[in-house]
Design goal:
This protein has 245 residues and is an alpha/beta fold. It has one domain: Spore Coat Polysaccharide Biosynthesis Protein SpsA, Chain A (Alpha-Beta Complex). The chain contains eight helices and eleven strands. The chain is globular. Pathway: Nucleotide-sugar biosynthesis; CMP-3-deoxy-D-manno-octulosonate biosynthesis; CMP-3-deoxy-D-manno-octulosonate from 3-deoxy-D-manno-octulosonate and CTP: step 1/1.
Length: 245
Amino acid sequence: MKAVGIIPARYHSTRLEGKPLMDIHGKPMIQWVYENVMKADVLDEVFVATDDQRIVEVVERFGGRAMMTSRDHTTGTDRIAEVAKNLDVQVVINIQGDEPFITPTMINEVATPLLGDQDIPMCTLMHEITEEDFHNPNVVKVVADSSGFALYFSRSLIPYPRNKEGHQAFEHIGIYGYQKTFLLKLSTLPPTPLEKTEALEQLRVLENGYKIKVISTAAKDYIPLSIDTKEDLERARAIIRSLRA
């Protein structure tokens, strides 16, 4: 296989336990994610990687494929690496299991550079944000160099608008693509100082001297909502209601 999508889905979320199974207009959240990912034409297969049999049963009930993984993983990266190591595949796409509005366009965007150039170890996405999100620490910002590779990720505003003319800020979208060989290597690297300070796992890549390609997504229908709280869940339900109205 050339590319697979893997959706890590942990049951025991700190702020919203059991969130992959939370109902959004008649379907569990994990089904919304899975069905959107399945529409990406670049993927040969899609799996849910989970630590809970309840999630496996729900995924299989709606016709998806799920794999049990260790309960000891501390990150989604470790969880998808456990699944990927047994797959004969070049590229692995890590899709967050709490983003029900992920689009197939974005899956294709993050996979294409990796399939075209095996020297690119990792790829991710970004989109421009407005001033209202500049100082929100939950909106992770990214700056890239002239070749489109990440210079830094931060919860702070980067770049700082000392000169406001032409200033742009971009939010990092938490979908990652990896060459399988790099993913397996990354899963063996210990957490790094900046990673621990910012609580951003992708900084481990930069601190170890590896590059991350960053693509500005062209997906116009993307709704940037990660479900971490009951309030997020209600917002997602409201969005679906408005789209169906």
